[in-house]
């Protein structure tokens, strides 16, 4: 039983490191590639970007969250096997608390972007985002995703290594 617990702990730690690397990779992809394709043909209008396309960028973080949840499930199983309920509770509370803080922080950044991205109008009176302003905000949005989800994964991985 001891070797089974050790194998579960090792797999859990590998998954936790994988979640951190997935968060870093996805954040870099969003920060550099996602920002470039915001205004590919023309910039989106003010009514469609922030309510729909801006938050869709969060979907790129799905693998990171899924890997982290798999790591947490294995870690909770390890804590059950080794009878360490306090470690299991700390990990679960950290997952929920840091997740809520991250969602609130991303919402604040998205709202700030909505307020600060410059607008321009065409001859027909339609309002569009300024390309340079929107692309620079897209880069900052990707870096914010990278920072928040990367920190979330890193803290959870660190908790697995602590005693």
Report the sheet with the most strands, covering strand number, pairing sense and barrel closure.
Answer: 2 strands, antiparallel
* Global shape: elongated
How far apart, in Å, are the first and last alpha carbons?
Answer: 20 Å
Give helix % range.
over 70%
Helix/strand order, N-terminal first: HHHHEEH
Estimate the mean pLDDT confidence: 79
**Whole-number radius of gyration?**
20 Å
Low-pLDDT parts are: none
What class, by secondary structure content? mainly alpha
Query: How many extended strands?
Result: 2
Give structural notes.
This protein is mainly alpha-helical and 163 residues long. The protein has one domain (2-161). The protein is built from 5 helices and 2 strands, in the order ααααββα. The chain has helices at 2-36, 49-56, 62-81, 85-116, 131-161, and strands at 119-121, 127-129. Helix 3 (62-81) runs antiparallel to helix 4. The model has no long low-confidence stretch (mean pLDDT 79).
Notable traits:
5 helices, 77% helix, 163 residues, two-stranded antiparallel sheet, mainly alpha, elongated
Topology:
Layout: H1 2-36, H2 49-56, H3 62-81, H4 85-116, E1 119-121, E2 127-129, H5 131-161
What's the short version?
It is built from 5 helices and 2 strands, in the order ααααββα. The protein is mainly alpha-helical. The chain has one domain.
């Amino acid at each position: 039983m001891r070797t089974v617990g050790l194998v579960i702990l090792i797999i859990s730690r590998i998954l936790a490191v994988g979640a951190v690397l997935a968060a870093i990779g996805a954040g870099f992809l969003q920060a550099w590639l996602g920002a470039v394709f915001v205004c590919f043909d023309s910039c989106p209008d003010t009514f469609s970007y922030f309510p729909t396309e801006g938050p869709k960028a969060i979907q790129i973080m799905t693998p990171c969250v899924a890997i982290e949840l798999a790591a947490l499930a294995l870690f909770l199983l390890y804590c059950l096997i080794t009878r360490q309920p306090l470690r299991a509770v700390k990990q679960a509370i950290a997952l929920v608390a840091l997740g809520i803080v991250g969602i609130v922080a991303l919402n604040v950044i998205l709202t700030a972007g909505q307020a600060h991205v410059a607008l321009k109008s065409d001859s027909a009176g339609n309002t569009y985002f300024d390309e340079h302003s929107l692309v620079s905000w897209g880069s900052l949005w990707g870096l914010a995703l990278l920072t928040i989800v990367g920190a979330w994964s890193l803290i959870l991985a660190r908790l697995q290594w602590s005693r």
